[in-house]
Amino acid sequence: MVVPTPEPGRPGSRRREPGWDVLRSGFVLLVVLYHATHLGPTLHPELIPRRFSFDHQVGASLLLVISAYFACATLGRHSPGRYWWGRVSRLLPAFLVAVPIAWTALRYLSPEDWGDPPARELVVNWLMLGNWDTERFPWLDPAFWTLPLQLMAFTAAAVLSVTRWGTGPRLRILLWMMVVVPLLLWPLRAAPNDPADPPEWYRMISDGFGFHRLHLFVAGIAVWLWSTRRIGNAHAGALLTLCGVAQFVHAFTPGPDNVVRFDLDHLDAMAAGLVCVGIALVALVARLPRPGAWTPAPVASAVRWLAGISYGVYLMHQTVGYVLMRRLQDVGVGPLLQSAAMLVTAVLLGWLLTRLVERPAHGALMRTWDRFALPRP
After folding, report:
1. Residues contacting 213, CB < 8 A, separation 6+
2. 218, 175 in Cβ contact below 8 A?
3. Full-prediction pTM beyond 0.85?
4. Residue 153 reports pLDDT greater than 80
């Protein structure tokens, strides 16, 4: 999840405050750092281990929190239909282009022992089937897992906004249920090899709809409600605390048999703690009147530029980066330069994807909506 690049903000739009740019750019850099120093060598053991390894999945989770926050902040500015079309127009075009780029990198640039993905995997990835059954429908780029969750969340937000469950006490009840129910069901999902567990279809539905990550969206919504004084301090604190508990439960890691056991030896406490700290930072920036106003102008400009291409960086960094690191290692490049090259390439390709695909496609699709949508009073 990943935060789409914002539309040109209106005067006074909080999305353009430097504090938000710092968070968005920082979180996407955490994603690249995690993949470049830890997950890459883990998935491809032939890569030389890094002296420094950031072993915790934090950045993508926090990007989903920010995505949920700004979904609330922008929903009321347009009709539900135009809001939904705007989110889809921002996310899908760049994704549709990123998929064949990842496929090409694996098919023609990766080492032979990495395998050649068949052409059908292009369609499988475009249909976003990976979360439903990763074994049968593997992601060409593992980072793509956030896309279907964001699209479902934006769709749900647009639908709820025209019902009585989109505001008031019903919304508050719904938010609590979105955290409590998956939290109660998580032990069933966490032990897929136990014969006493529900059948495979249960795991597919749980993963496909991302039930075990709903607390991240709830955290973003709760921060927005609190920052706009729609819920009080006590209510927000209790709800966010429960989201933190859900994150700690989610941070239990599988053992050698791929079964999650709820003991401290299988808890990535650092990842859960960092996500909670990140949520607190999001809440702080959301509540401050002018977050990051003290940032020096050159730094603010650089961070704004990186935040503006963060979605493209997210889409382009992982699979292409792994292939690049392996090829550099084949010619004798060390691990530090491999990781640095992955970061630089991700930023360059992310900028190109943003400039050539994401922004032009979004503008064209929004003009199409405005041209053909029925006029509203």
Report:
1. 61, 64, 149, 250
2. yes
3. yes
4. yes
Q: Which residues pair with 252 in a beta bridge?
A: 267
Closest CA to 75 of 153, 169, 164, 17: 153
Among residues 58, 60, 72, 62, the alpha carbon closest in space to that of 15 is found at 72
pLDDT in tens, 48-77: 989 889 988 899 999 999 999 999 999 888
Query: Which residue, 23, 18, 30, is CA-closest to 298?
Result: 18
Q: What is the rounded distance in angstroms from the CA atom of residue 24 to the CA atom of residue 312?
A: 12
> Tokens in use for 41?
């060598």
Would you state the structure tokens that stand for residue 298, as one six-digit string?
A: 């050159």
The CA–CA distances, whole Å, from 118 to 94, 98, 108, 124, 134 equal: 21, 16, 12, 10, 16
| pLDDT digit string, tens, across residues 256-298 | 445 555 555 556 788 889 999 999 999 999 998 877 777 788 8
Residue reference for tokens 């943003």: 354
Question: What whole-number distance in Å separates Cα of residue 280 and Cα of residue 227?
Answer: 12
The number of beta carbons lying within 10 Å of the beta carbon of residue 142 is 17
Q: What is the DSSP letter of 32?
A: H
- CA of residue 305 relative to chain centroid, distance: 19
Q: Number of helices and strands (H, E) in the chain? A: 16, 0
The 8-class DSSP code of residue 332 comes to T
pLDDT at 295: 77
Taking each helix axis as running N to C, give the angle between helix 269-287 and helix 18-34, from 0 to 180 degrees, rounded to the nearest 10.
170
The three state secondary structure string of 244-299 is HHHHHHHCECECCCCCECCCHHHECHHHHHHHHHHHHHHHHHHHCCCCCCCCCHHH
Alpha-carbon torsion (280, 282, 283, 284), positive or negative: positive
From the list 312, 313, 307, 223, the residue with the least C-alpha distance to 21 is 307
Would you mind telling me the total number of residues written for the chain in this entry? 377
